[in-house]
Structure formats: structure tokens, C-alpha cells
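As a point of orientation, let us examine one representative protein, giving the amino acid sequence and C-alpha cells.
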Amino acid sequence: MVSYRTPVGVIAGPAAPAPTETPAAPTTPAEPTAPVEPTTPAESTAPAELTTPAEKEPSAEDAGAAPTRWRWTRRRQHLAVGGLFLLAALWVTSRIWLDPSGRVASLYTGDPAQVQFFLAHSVRVVLHGEYPFYTEQFNYPDGVNLMANTAVLALGIPMVPVTLLFGPAVSFVVLVTLGLAGTAMAWYLMLSRHLVRTPLAAAVGGWFCGFSPAMLSHASWHPNIISQFLLPFIVWRVLVLTRSKKPVRDGALLALLVTAQAFINEEILLFTALACGVFLLAVLAQEPARWRAAWRPLGAGVATCALLAGALLAYPLYVQFAGPMAYHGLSDAVRDYGNDIAAFFAPGSPTLGGNQRANINLAPNYSEENAFFGWSLSLLTIGIVVWLRRELIVRALAVTGVFFAVLSLGERVSWWDRELFTGPWQWLVHLPLLDAVVPTRFGLITSVVIGLLLALAVERAWALRPADRRTVRVLTAAGLAFALLPIAPLPLRMVSRPPVPDFITADRWRAYVGPDQTLVPIPVPSMGNTHGMRWAAATNLDFKIPGGYFLAPRNGNTGDPGRFGGRPSGVGQMLEEVATTGRTPTLDDRQRRRFTDELRHWRAAILVLPLRQQNAEPLRRAVEELVGPGRQELDVWVWDVRALSDRSV
């Protein structure tokens, strides 16, 4: 289909004619010259490597003859673009950088706490050789299947030094910052080397792929989803296979990339595979003759990739699908998440033109705004497809983007929260692997497609040769500003959160909790109460806790459909209600006996209630009715329940 040695014109259509060469040392050029286009594919390994002769290192004689001028080399260009992306990522995360431990996204605080817990687990894997794919440090004694919960080992293990020095909260914000900037830079490098020659075109495409409204939506909560810096290279290696001279070697390289991405986020890896498949089918449907040259190297490379990646991932995948606490299928709470059609024409909440209140019924929640391109960009994208419709790659990209946009609508297609008809996702949701997909996230593929179309449009506009080139370029820049300004990123909204109690950070808990016992935070950790998970993460999981926020099989039976949380806890739900409402219920002996049974099941050593917990006084009274009076120690109330939970009594 396309080779890394093939200029973009082979698949993307004819490029502009090469300009006349300029002297090696022009004095005052009126305008920057475009790179020289090679006459044959073998002349260059990548179109973007064709640069002006100014990149040549000056000789000693030249240096003595005249002072060396500062030269805008390709490396400096890449560093400048990368610096701009990093500054943009720091701007987006600036509010959380002010206090990583004390600030969190304004809604849905559970996901950051879960990621910080997983980052602390990576510390235990590296320092203590702990089993990486399963843990009993939360949801004790049942434990949690980490392969089925996106434990981000490929991100957490490299971040171990940062986690040890500064804590998991700092590691979290570092991952978010690098995820945004790294994804944008990866797409920029891939585009500049293999799709477009104009630096501005590659920068615009990389910018949108890294800072699209969908990426900003996930940034506050899901660093594993926004860490897409391997995806451009996976896509590139798949396309290389279609014309590869060494398909076994190239398939092995692809397998290594696939394996690494599997330990970042498997869902994004599945999306990438589906997108590559749909794109290649769209190309072949338009030009079936390409199949004769592509099927042998593609088949050999894909087979090599499947064998090697399958061997590397065989055991982790076995643990994920057949190991302890494995589940089959997502929770019903997220399985029908879909985009509203109107979401494609509204700006995202964390953008310059966004409005949280206006978006409230257009997405499942604010962490899943996977479309939200705005009217201007949506119309511009349609205009690009119409303008460049003669190019094979543009038609294939358009088919790919529309296909996954339709799937992202979910099982029920709606317009401004009014259901219209049943969507095609209803026929696919029960298929293997797809039953674990959140359909609204298919919009992430459409975002990447739009980024590629923007890059191609800028490239084609820059290559036009009308009488007044400057006017065309000014109009192109104005069109980009008109389309992208409404969805320009703003700093992510943050709120303060309670600090980890001094009782935990000062290690006072160690006097009570043994290796096979648990510390029970009040309220018991759950999807809506994840502060206890942050306490454990702050100690690098040196103590166990019951409950938590994770995906597990219903009722703790391996192989059942998934749900959020472990076995239902009657007393845990009661304490959660007290924490929410502030009303203390009247308890009887039956509830006290049930609580004692749960304490024995958890092997609880102490119950801990922070003084600054919301509705702390009603919670204290409720716990005292269950187990008797507690005592204040530093900034918490503590109940020593080792005598009650001792199974030998």
C-alpha cells in the first residue's frame, strides 16, 4: 500500500511539482523554499528528510572565511515543535501541578485514585518482586485481577523512580502531561516523515491528535487512554508490511510495539487494529489491484506479529480472561455508553468555546466526551473531504472516520438526548472482545482521522502555485484558526481534596496492622469513596484494605459479567449512605453481628475515620454503635477491632 521508502504521492495522490533548486547559500530569500521532491522512490527513505542544503555542516575553511550563521536545522525544528507541545501540555495541567496531592479533577475522583494505586503497585513489582497481574492489597481477601483492570504496567514501571521520590500523585500528573505532549509529538514525527513534507502540516495534525477535545476529556482521569505515543508507529509498521522486503523482521518489530501497548491500554490497541483494518479495506475496495502486491508481505508480517506477540502475551491474557477474579463483559453501567449525534457539532467542555451545562446530555459523562469537534471544524472536515475527494488516501480516511463515528453512537442513536432508532452497535456488542469495549470511545478513532485530514489539507494548500501564494497561505491559516480556536484547550478544572491523614503518613498505623490484616477506612472504599485507596498508595501499598474501585465479576465468581466493586457489603453501603446524607440509622443486634462477620472476613485490625471526613460526626456515632467507642489519634478516630475480628475467638 505504502512503503517507508515511498513518497507520499504514491498513496496520497500527485504532489506539487518540485521547485527549482536555489543556491546553497542564499543571501536574503523572499520566501522559504519547499523541500525538493525526489524523482524516484529509492532516492529517499522519507519525504520529510528532504531538507535545504543549509543543514550541511560547515567546513573549517568555510568557518574561517565567513562567520557561521545560525541555521534552522531539522533537529532544531523538531525540538521547537516538541517544546511547544510540552508547553501546551503544561498549560492544560497547570492547575493540578500547583498541588498534585491536594487537587483533583472536579468530577469523578475515583479514576485518579485508582491510577495512583496502580502506580504504587508498580513500585512493589520492581522493589519487592510482587506478582504483577494480581493483587490482594485491595478488595482483600478476594483480590483484584490487574490484567482485567488496566494496571498500566508499561507506564508505572518506568515511573517508579518518580513515584518513590515524589509519590504517586506527582507520577499521575507527570503521566498526564507526557501523555498529551508525547502523543502529539509522535504523530508529528510520523506525519513529517511519512505523509507530508510541510512542517506546519505535520504540526497541525500532531497538535489535533494530541490535544483534541476527546484527549482533553480523558486527561483528568485516564492517563492510560491519552498515552497514545506508540499508536503512530504501530500504524506506520502496519503500512510498511504492505510493501515490506523483510516481512518477518517488520512483523517482529510490530509485535514488540503491540506488546508494549497492551500493557498501556488494550482497548486503544484494539481500536488501532480495527482502524487499520477498515482503512486497508477501504483502500482495496477502491483499487483491488493493490492486493496482488500486498497480500504476501502483509500476510507473512501479520502472522509473525501474531505468533510473537501471542507468545509474549499468552500468560498475561490467560490471567486476564481465565485467572482469579476474571470477568466476561463490561458492567451494564458503561456498556451502552454512546455519543449523541449533536455531540459532533458542539465544542468540548475543557475547551475555549465549551459549555459544561450545554454538554450534560450529549455524552455519558464529562470524562467520555469523545467527539465534540464543534460546528466550524465539522464543516471544515467535510469541506476537506470534498476538496480532496480525488485522492485515494482521503477517501479511505473519510470512510474510516465515518464508520467509527457511527459505531460510537452506541446501541441507541439519539439527537439532543432524544432517541431516534437502534444503532448498529447493538448487533456487535455481544461479540468476543467487543463486549469489553465502551462504544463512545470509537470517537477517538474519528479524532485521529480528522487530524490526518487537517495535515493533508495544509500540505495541499501549501503546495498550490497560484499567482499570489502568500494570500493562499494566509487564508489557510485563517481557516485553521476559525476551526480550531473554539476547541482550543483550557486548563483542566480542579478542586481541592482531603489530604492523606497524618496518622497514615507518620506510620502510626504500623503499631496496629500486621502483614495479614487490613486497615479499614471509614467509609469503606468503593466506587464513590476512594480516599482509602490514596492512603494505601501513599505508603506504596504497605497495608491492605477491603473494597475499592475496580472491575470484578459479580458476587466475586470468576467468569461472571463485570461490575464495579467486589462482593456487596451491607455495612459498607450503610456507612456510605451516612457519609452522603449525614443521617445516622438505628442499628440492631443483627446488623452488629453482620458487621462483626465482615470484620472477620476482612481480617480487620483497625477502623480509621479522618476528622475532616464529610459528615464525620454521624459516621463516628454509627461506628460506635457497631463496635463501641474509639479514640482520637492525631487527625483520625481509631477503633482497634483485632479482638472482634480474630477468627479464633
Remarks:
- The longest helix spans residues 290-322.
- The chain is about 50% helix and 5% strand.
- The CA atoms of residues 97 and 174 lie 9 Å apart.
